[in-house]
Amino acid sequence: MTQQNTAFEEQFGGIPAVWLRFGAFEAAVIPSIGANLVAFRDTEKGYRYLREPNQDDMKEFLAAPAVYGIPILSPPNRYEDGRFPWNGKVYQLPINEPATGNHLHGFLHDVEWKLEGYGSNDQESYVTLSQSIGEGHTFYKYLPFTFTVTLRYSLSSQGLQQQLIVNNTGTEYMPNLFAFHTAIKVPFAPDSQSSDYTAKVTIGQRRELNERSLPTGQFQPLTPEEEQLKANGVSPFFAAMDNHYTAEPQNGRNYMELTDHRTGDKLVYDVGTSYKHWMIWNNNACHEFFCPEPQMNLVNAPNVEGVSAEEIGLVGLQPGQLFEQTSRLYPIAARK
User: Fold this and answer.
1) pTM greater than 0.90
2) At 267, phi and psi to the nearest 5?
3) Do the beta carbons of residue 280 and residue 245 sit within 8 Å?
4) DSSP labels, 29-49
5) Which of the four pLDDT bands, split at 50, 70 and 90, describes residue 335?
6) C-alpha–C-alpha distance, residues 327 and 166, integer Å
């Protein structure tokens, strides 16, 4: 039976959350932990499309929120020695990955976000969350720029839409670097196995990474399996992956498509063309989830020389400027 379209506050694993329901779809977002959208489901089919935290034991989620749901990263991924050169100045980020001596994943994925509002109508169920960065904010402590970030999630007959808006409310040119560490559940259908699945991602070239997981400036040839990933699809667990690729839109779209060959159902993650890079991580080919991560900038981009800022996604916003990008997760049902 189809659910009533609604939006309401209720806990997820003992933590306050906002739940959205529209038709057969259901989603949950946790404002207090990075505005992480931790669940997206089809309740009629029993499908769970994201790697959800265990609601009976949230300790692992609280310790590592970046590997569940859809966490927002800014500035995303790694920065060598924590150095962040920008517009003639060099800022120092904390070294929070001792094994590599880098800064990792920025300051927005584990902080509390403001719940601006939620609601439901005949067209959608939605929630809006915001983050205001200024004096006193952890982000500002290391990168002293004043701006707001707004995330709007909505469920409709067309699946889950994510809208990201960044507004430079300060007086300086600021870096505008974002990514989403999206954790896709494999299998998403309860009676399927991970071996039933193939993934396609609009990757281009693979960037070589050094022992500190930083780009060397060189590209590596794609393996036959990576060529399949780019073309018609391959198991997302064909090898242990923590790989950095350029994005190469196909037919005007930048996307991941995951197919369950047992049911014939597909999940599409259409991320938009502002994300010029993909990170793909599968937790040592764990056969439980993988992360196709849309990322605006090259890893360590502020420290890369000799390449245009546009090519590596080292982009920014002038005072008063807005940036907006919309992404969507949606299923395509098997043809009968």
Assistant:
1) yes
2) -120, 125
3) yes
4) EETTTTTEEEEEEETTTTEE-
5) confident
6) 15
Residues 119-155, buried b or exposed e (16+ Cβ, 10 A)?
ebeeebbbbbbbbebeeebebbebbbbbbbbbbbbbb
Cα 189 versus chain centre, distance: 21
Cβ atoms 319, 259 nearer than 8 A: no
Alpha carbon of 115 to those of 47, 60, 130, 234, 264: distances in Å? 27, 24, 7, 39, 37
- The whole-angstrom separation of Cα 50 and Cα 183 is 6
For the segment 16-63, what is each residue's pLDDT rounded down to a tens digit? Answer: 999 999 999 999 999 999 999 999 999 999 999 999 999 999 999 999
Spell out the residues 6+ positions from residue 211 whose beta carbon is closer than 8 angstroms to its own: none
Per DSSP, the three-state class of 310 is: helix
User: Could you tell me which residues come within 8 angstroms of residue 283 by beta carbon, excluding any fewer than 6 positions away?
Assistant: 67, 289, 290, 291
Cα gap 195→91, rounded to integer Å: 45
Q: What are phi and psi of 62, to 5 degrees?
A: -65, -30
Distance, CA of 294 to CA of 101 (rounded, Å): 24
* Residue 215: Cβ-neighbour burial (10 angstroms; 0-12, 13-18, 19+): buried
User: Chain-wide mean pLDDT for the chain?
Assistant: 97
Positive or negative: CA dihedral 149, 324, 204, 234: positive
Residue with the two structure tokens 């037919």: 251
What tokens appear for 330 in the block?
Answer: 């949606």
61, 12 Cβ separation under 8 angstroms: no
Q: Are 269 and 184 in contact (CB under 8 A)?
A: yes
For residue 328, how many other CB atoms are within 10 A of its CB?
18
User: Quick one: the chain helix, strand, coil %, rounded to 5?
Assistant: 10, 45, 45
